[in-house]
Amino acid sequence: MTREAQEPRRTDRAIVAGVDGSPESLAAAEWAAREAENRRVPLRLAHAWRWEPLDLPLVQDPTGLEKAAHDLVHAAEAEITARHPEVAVSASVLPDTPVAALLAAQEEAEMLVIGSRGHGAVAGFLLGSYGQQVIAAATRPVVSVRARDGEAAEPPTGEILVGQQGTPEDSEPVLRFAFETAAARGAAIRAVRAWSLPPLYAYSPASMRLADDAGGLVPFEEKALREALAPWRERYPYVPVTEHVELGSAGQVLLTTSGAAQLLVVGRRARRGALGQRIGSVAHAALHLAPCPVAVVPQG
What we know:
Elements: H1 3-6, E1 15-18, H2 23-39, E2 43-48, H3 62-83, E3 89-94, H4 98-106, E4 111-116, H5 129-137, E5 142-148, E6 151-152, E7 160-163, H6 172-185, E8 189-195, H7 205-213, H8 217-235, E9 241-247, H9 250-256, E10 263-269, E11 271-273, E12 276-278, H10 281-289, E13 294-299
């Protein structure tokens, strides 16, 4: 039994899972139920529905459609409750568009869990437009889960893989989420810091002095990772941690080490481009190509 499991049930924040009746969303609800059980928090299933009449010569039945929306979410509630009787499960229909409804629901949540369609031919569209918009604008961690035969594609064992970048302050939200999750599951952590050789013009006397003081570029990166992990190792001394420093792009290194992971945790900085909010290249690569569920944690 993990130390987290010995603590009394928490009721301050629920885990919210978006459901729409698809196999992907049901896999997300199942993953969220396991996590709620591990963390001893309630689970809230949410389905967005708002009557929007179509400009078509068809008989439209708003009452019937609303009933179908309630039936859908309550069927998911019954299924999850039967599988996880220890979890306090509730369900609701949110009267709004999917993106707006999920963003409102995640504000007071422990995390938001959504489904992903998985691998496909066009990488930019694997996650779906709703999912990308939610992840880009969310203020709480968002976990994307793929479906495999109706179940969450999550190995029963494996490490929590977390990407660490920048200073300890930069990566504090990501490491907090990773260590909390590992502690609740009784899992180990592999903390990955990827680095690249800077172009010649990027070298500065100050940065090279820091690297020299650390004994070279590789020891400098290793020291940076140790310093970022130090407060979390002290807070969670019972969580095994492996440090992994590798030359390469962050997305590439994380993907090549994610094969046996049960969860990949990455950060997301708020970026706005010509087409709106962006999730960043590392989170984008992880969400579309990692074989395991991916948690995207807002930073800054």
